[in-house]
Amino acid sequence: LQSMGDLASRLGQVDDALKHYENALTLYELNRDIIGKMNTFISLARLNAVQEKIDEAKSYYEQGFVLADSINFSSHEVVLSWRNEYQLLLAVEMHEIAPEKAQALADLLIEWVNTPNWDMSEQFLTENREKLLTEDAVQALHLLVMSNDSNQMLVQHQTILKNAIEHGIEAAYAPLKKSHLEKLQQLRQVFDHMQEPQQVQAVIAMWLMLGNRFLQQEDISHDDLKQFIADSELFVLPKAEESGEALLVNGCKVLLGWAYSRLHIQYDEQKDYPQALAAISKAIEYRPENAMYYHNRAVTYMDMEDYANALPDLEKAQELEPDAQRLPKLWKQYNDGIGESSHDDEN
């Protein structure tokens, strides 16, 4: 319902958006869904801000912050970005900017937001600090955010700009340059302080998001990958199972299957076949429906010339994905290997 409200808001259907948000709040109240209520209050705040209903917008932001505080999310980066929006809303009440200057600043801000990486972004802000580290730029960026449905890249740059003004450019960029693993390790420490089920579920959901980004990286060191697996198995998956939320449990198993699959590749490249088999077997344990994992284990068995164990995995891969394009090549490798093995035995 909240998403439907957001869609209606983007389409300019204010009355429909308000109705969806009202229904969402009723549902979230019945289900005691604090995170759902919190997100809906922020959506309502943004909708009212765009309509220049500043008092109503402030009220909704404040209600969202109360809920964030109640689940110990006050220092979360998303909540901090909301607080930044709130502060900018207050600033807009007190500060006006000429339209021509606002447009020029908007063009410069968009160029900054579109820089391809954080190093170039920091360099751009440093080179244009006299124009961008100003209250006028803060207001111009706020107007961009409000007119672009709170685009997340714009919102993130609001936080950077605010921190750069208050603490300096280098300090504003420092958190952004942390690796995905560093962010995961920080989140791992949060688990020790979570008591309420909804708090735990929210942290697990954040872990799954960051874990997905971590595993998408092309180059992950062996030690970092093993650390991620250990944390996921020893802390996150048990917490997800305790929560009773099937989606969270399944999400953890999907990530662990993926992580073990990547560990299998690393061992396989080193020709450490026993470790490779152990890793891919764990991937299959977590994701027994994933045909690719059986395919990969069959290849490792064939690299070891263990065709007897390769055959069941080939058959399982074919059962799960009978039309997979890789199967003919895989069967050819198996049949060629069997033929060579038989020829060697004859000799």
Your description of this structure?
With 347 residues, this protein is an all-alpha fold. It has helices at residues 2-10, 14-30, 34-50, 54-70, 77-94, 99-113, 118-127, 129-132, 135-147, 152-167, 169-173, 180-190, 197-215, 222-243, 246-269, 273-286, 291-303, 307-320, 327-346. The radius of gyration is 26 Å and the shape is elongated. The N and C termini lie far apart (72 Å).
Offer a concise description of the structure.
This protein is mainly alpha-helical. The protein is 80% helix and 0% strand.
The low-pLDDT segments are: none
Task: Give the mean pLDDT.
Answer: 87
> Structural class from helices and strands?
mainly alpha
β-strand percent reads under 5%
Order of helices and strands: HHHHHHHHHHHHHHHHHHH
DSSP helix fraction: over 70%
Number of strands: 0
Total helical segments: 19
Distance between the termini: 72 Å
In this structure, how is the largest beta sheet organized?
none
Output the radius of gyration: 26 Å
Shape: elongated
